[in-house]
Amino acid sequence: MKKITKAVFPVAGLGTRFLPATKAIPKEMLPIIDKPLIEYAVEEAVNAGINEIIFITSHTKRAIEDHFDQNFELEEKLINSGKKDFVNKINRDIFRNINFTYVRQKSQNGLGDAILHSEHLIQDESFAIILADDLIINNPSCTSQLISAYDENQCSIIGLNEVPENETDKYGMVSVEEPSSPTNSFLVKDIIEKPKSNAPSNLAVVGRYVLSSKIFKYLKNLKPSVGGEVQLTDAIKLMLYDENVVGYLYEGKKFDCGSRHGYVNAIQYLAQEILND
Description:
This protein is α/β, with parallel strands linked by helices. The protein has a single domain (about 5-275), classed as Spore Coat Polysaccharide Biosynthesis Protein SpsA, Chain A (Alpha-Beta Complex). The protein has 10 helices and 13 strands.
């Protein structure tokens, strides 16, 4: 099976939970210490072997494109000021051979619709999906773990996280076949988007996936559901009728930086690491 080299980053959302800060700044560009949130996610992808980054954007997200482009004027000024170390920080070697592509999602119709916008670039390859709101810290990274699970199981993989019962209505929740021995991999039987009650388990889908290109077939046939949007979980649910999908309980520390509490906790955690260094 072909190596996973492409990752899709849906970044078209408005970030309303961080207004007024996100009125003019994409939420993905909000800083975690000295790097924007999106840079942590792209680092994760690159360190997992991804070399093609596909951003699904909107007209308010030009700053993301500028961030991963070169700024020759700024670099020249830094060099002339004797601040060459800062040039290395804004023009990082790990991104040097990475191809960045930007696709405009003209209206925000849900995560499933955003992923569908990448079909012409993915074609018939399996690919990763990374939601930058979920900052997950671990070595190996969450995406690396999912790609390894994909290589082992030869099927689509969704990242899983255990959540308390009172938070199951915030996530896509899965039911799984009970494994015969301790493992991080579970065969998914069903997936329900943000159940209001009676969640099938405490295993929630997090913002990391490695999916077969067959997902596009299911996305094309979907109608808007929860929130009036096209949900990726609905497409995965349809996929379950035709092929195996494995949920992988990743190892790592997760911060929901799409919420103010999660964002502040991420800053505090990484700040403490710096202070302890």
